[in-house]
Automatic annotation (TrEMBL):
This is Carbohydrate metabolism domain-containing protein. The keyword Metal-binding does not apply. Residues 260-500 form the Putative carbohydrate metabolism domain. It comes from Bacteroides oleiciplenus YIT 12058. Residues 35-152 form the Lipocalin-like domain. Residues 1-19 form the signal peptide. Keywords: Signal. InterPro entries: Lipocalin-like (IPR024311), PCMD (IPR025112), Put_CMD_sf (IPR038653). The keyword Transcription regulation does not apply.
Length: 507
């Protein structure tokens, strides 16, 4: 019994002596205090001596694995569109040389997609900076991958956000500004169908990113989006988190645009005043032809003018509401609002509201109605809807006039195959209407104001390729002018009206 206790005591002592000798032999380095942590840096990669990547952003993690041993981890290692998974070397032996440390290690790893590999690493750590050379022998392929890493240790307080927070392209070729889909990492936009490849090679995206992040390519640099090409933007957060965005054109759109640059003068006759019409007259019409007949009642004013008070180009269109209440009768309305619309004006003395024939043929699905306007309401609002003589006109001092700007897509043919033509009677109520884009704020605007209104499809309605449609753009200096209500002198100036549409393939 005493002999057994002696042997047990001797064994314990010998184990303690071995451990103490081992601790004494292995140097103890301040790994956790100085070396361990995450390093933000870049990789250069070669495959059998051929460069495959340069400056690829990547983080590595160094951790303590012993008194003089560290582990090195490189997560999500990928190149040539192959993700090889995580490379982790468990035992890299440290050696100190002044303030610098060198490390080296070797390990067999089973990497995703390529199988077993022999991985050797050698590197240095000095004053918060790490460099490492990894040699990876891909046994199954008989190829060698060389990786050179350089990075700087993070404090742990750096931001991890790596986002493109806003993205625009300032070009008339872009009909739909870029939309960021954070979940998929994609940014898409649409362009005019008239854009050429040369045009698409010169687009300059302007964008902002997360605070303290960096990005390549830089904002404001022209990129090539021609031929369906995508541009990859890589955002790197302060702490090295990487987010890539693929930017591309999602489709093309057409435009129907009216800039009111060209006009024609329509000579007066013994019945009518001279007036002016914006071109093209096969698409555009105004209320001026009807007002021209007021010459018979010694009215020389006009509701439609070409003006040099423009937003772009040389001219714009000015619509003015005429107060003719002092001459009101069965043929003279108390109010004649200035209006411009797509369609035709065909005077109907028995039904003046039906004189405006709204709409032109349109074979696209409308997406946006856009343009510029300014508006000044007249001083005295009157209701002449039932007036057949001046004393029947009603003043309404509590009402301030508003303008009307809208676009309407409607079915061009009814169930019996007859042409549908909407007028002032039913442009806002007809069941043939399919989609509308209407300016909701018709109040005063002293300066040019931009509107960009998406078309809204009415309940139960959709664009059908089997049907034919008309598009009515209708703008008026008095929103209730078709009911002969408004304020004399109300003035609406319009420029650069356009409807953006998309071609839809037949099912």
């Amino acid at each position: 019994m005493k002999k057994n206790l002696f042997y047990l005591f001797a064994l314990i002592c010998s184990m303690s002596l071995f451990t103490a000798c081992s601790d004494d032999d292995d140097p103890v380095y301040p790994i956790e205090e100085e070396l361990a942590g995450t390093y933000k840096g870049t990789l250069d990669i070669e495959l059998d001596g051929t460069p495959m990547a340069n400056g690829m952003p990547k983080n590595i993690t160094i951790a303590k694995a012993g008194n003089n041993i560290i582990s090195l981890e490189l997560k999500d290692f990928n190149f040539m569109e192959m993700n090889l998974g995580t490379i982790k070397l468990e035992k890299c032996v440290l050696k100190q040389n002044g303030t610098s440390y060198t490390f080296a290690g070797s390990q067999e790893l089973n990497l995703s997609g390529i199988g077993k590999c022999n991985v050797d690493v050698a590197g240095t750590i000095n004053n918060g900076k790490a460099e490492a050379n990894l040699n990876i022998d891909v046994l199954q392929l008989g190829q060698a991958v060389k990786v050179v890493y350089k990075g700087t240790k993070l404090t742990g307080s750096e931001s991890s956000e790596a986002k493109i927070t806003a993205f625009t392209i300032d070009s008339e070729l872009v009909t739909e500004q870029p939309v960021i889909d954070e979940a998929t990492g994609t940014i898409t936009f649409k362009v005019r169908d008239t854009a050429t490849n040369d045009d698409l090679k010169a687009l300059k995206p302007i964008f902002t990113i997360s605070e303290k992040a960096t990005v390549t390519p830089a904002s404001g640099v022209a990129q090539d989006f021609s031929g369906g090409k995508a541009v990859i933007y890589t955002v790197i957060s302060e702490n090295g988190t990487v987010k890539a965005y693929e930017v591309s054109i999602a489709g093309s759109q057409s435009e129907l645009k009216f800039s009111f640059e060209e006009w024609e003068t329509v000579p007066g006759t013994f019945l009518t005043n001279e007036y002016y019409s914006p071109l093209p007259t096969d698409l555009l019409a105004t209320s001026a032809p009807g007002a021209a007949y007021l010459k018979l009642f010694k009215v020389t004013d006009l509701p439609v003018f070409q003006t040099d008070d423009k937003k772009e180009g040389e001219s714009a269109i000015k619509l003015v509401t005429m107060d003719t209440s002092d001459k009101a009768n069965a043929l003279v309305p108390a109010i004649t609002s200035g209006s411009v619309f797509t369609g035709k004006f065909v005077l109907n003395t028995g039904d003046r509201i039906a004189s405006s024939k709204f709409g032109i043929a349109y074979d696209k699905r409308p997406v946006y109605f856009r343009g510029w306007y300014k508006y000044t309401p007249g001083a005295k609002y009157i209701d002449g809807s039932k007036a057949t003589k001046p004393e029947e006109v009603i003043e309404k001092p509590d009402i301030v006039d508003e303008c009307a700007i809208q676009a309407v897509l409607y079915e061009a043919v009814d169930a019996d195959g007859k042409e549908v033509i909407l007028t002032g009677h039913d442009i806002n109520t007809s069941d043939y209407r399919v989609a509308i884009a209407r300016l909701e704020d018709g109040t005063a605007k002293a300066e040019y104001t931009y509107f960009d209104i998406p078309f809204t499809f009415l309940t139960g309605k959709a664009y059908e390729t089997s049907k034919t449609y008309k598009l009515a753009i209708v703008c008026s200096s008095s929103k209730d002018g078709d009911s002969f209500m408004g304020a004399g002198g109300s003035t609406l100036i319009l420029d650069e009206l356009e409807v953006i549409g998309e071609s839809v393939a037949a099912e």
